[in-house]
Amino acid sequence: MKKSLLALMLLAGAATVSAQDVVQVGSLEGASSTTKFPWYSSYECSSSEIVYTADDLKDLPAGDLSKLEFAVTGGQMTYIHLRVWLENTTDTQVVGATSGAIRNTDEMTKVYDTAGKGYFMDERTLQAYSGTGYLDCPFDTPFEYTGGGLRIRFEATGENWCQSEFAFFVDQDKANASSDKNCSTIYDFTESGMRSRSAEAERSFPVVQFTVTPKVDAPKVYLRGDFNGWGTTHEFVAGSEDGVYTVSLDELSGSFKVATEDWSTVNLGGNEGDVLAVGTPYALVENGANLALGSTVKNAVVTYNAKEKTVTVTGDEVLTYYMKHPWGTGEDADWSWKELTDNGDGSYSVVAAYGGKGVNVNTAASDAGAMWFGEPSVVDPREAQSTIHLNSVEIGDECTFTYWKDNNFVEIVKTVVTGVNDLNVKASKVYKVIENGQVVIVKDNARYNVAGQMLR
Questions:
Q1: What is the 3-state secondary structure (H, E, C) of 374-405?
Q2: What CATH code is assigned to 222-318?
Q3: Gyration radius (Cα) of the chain, Å
């Protein structure tokens, strides 16, 4: 039987409401009672153990257990120091089923202890129950239940022989369904020392309730982009840290996103125009624009933190520059990217036909984060390095397009054939730069102001 509450879970980086179930194990219909389990309530001290098998707990989903409750009735007011341990198990009966021996707690997880909760002498006050009640043990920390059987260990100690005889309800049908002894107890001792110490093991089935937040499998999330045709070939893999996933690639460049196959469960990008810096976490945006790097990264590792909703790219950064221009046509529809050649002096070039427009420059063949150099920053050609006078560059003229990284400017230089001895003459390099807020014209490495005066 299940009853639902509400709890919050984190699913692939998004806050998602998930049902927190209260699951009853065993039935109260036709139930009998016992004073032995979960602890021997006729004695001031007992140490007990119950094993619920995977079949017993078939209605309890895997997830985080946060509370354990026992169906109880009767009793007198008493004081008790109660401790509870849990362990996932495949066992069907208690250890030492013939002798009543109790397993130690070395490999178990303590989930509840009345010590340190403000109770006098760490002992919780239990009132008598009229009819059916539930004695609750809210866990100090959630316990990860894996979906099989559970071993539950109880230690209950008190200062007085209270003879309270709290009665715990037992599902008698389930108790009779097997001969496996799933309960054992050691009792009749004090915290300071043994009195006579008795032990028993038997088949029983105390009716309990668990509060559980079911485990929800996170959806498969992929790195999708230009590099894989926006497909799902690169799935993020969970790492050692909860909620952190990684995927590795030989090389990463261009645009990409973090998304599920359906593009709706998870679809994470960035802000329009942002460029990711290698090694720096970037805050993802739901349904955001495509992500882009400012370079090509070889031996790339992409880390997706679902809790913080960030992505980080690490690896060997390689700067390759690309230029976009309507090569030779001047038509807006003909804009395309060309890779530039590294000249080794801080400049990158390509030889192509002039298209009568400005250019984009980027470290990837992508519009995201691209730099724009309009016609005002291009002054070419002017005068030849000989006495031959050159006319302005026309659309279709073959030119050398060069991006100078350090000074961040672009020059377009036309190569002219003189018609005499087929001599190739290169046009002067003339361009505009901004220095201290002023326009400076640079020609053949000399600098001039807009009035044509040489600057020193």
A1: CHHHECCCCEECCCCECCCCCCCCEEEEEEEC
A2: 2.60.40.3620
A3: 38
Kindly state the tokens that stand for 370. Answer: 């691209």
Give the CA dihedral 74, 75, 78, 81, nearest 10 degrees: -80
Q: How confident is the model at residue 152 (pLDDT cuts 50, 70, 90)?
A: very high
Q: Is the separation of the CB atoms in 348 and 340 below 8 Å?
A: yes
SS3 state of residue 60 = coil
CA distance 309 to 304: 7
Of 208, 210, 234, 203, nearest to 221 by C-alpha is 234
Spatial distance between the Cα atoms of 335 and 317, rounded to a whole number of angstroms: 27
**Are the CB atoms for 415 and 398 separated by under 8 Å?**
yes
Please tell me the distance from the alpha carbon of residue 237 to that of residue 231, in angstroms, as a whole number.
Answer: 16
pLDDT tens digits, one per residue of 109-128: 999 998 876 665 556 666 65
pLDDT digits (tens, 9 = 90+) for 48-63: 889 999 999 999 999 9
Residue with token string 């509450």:
5
Domain boundaries of the chain, sorted by first residue: 2-214, 222-318, 322-455
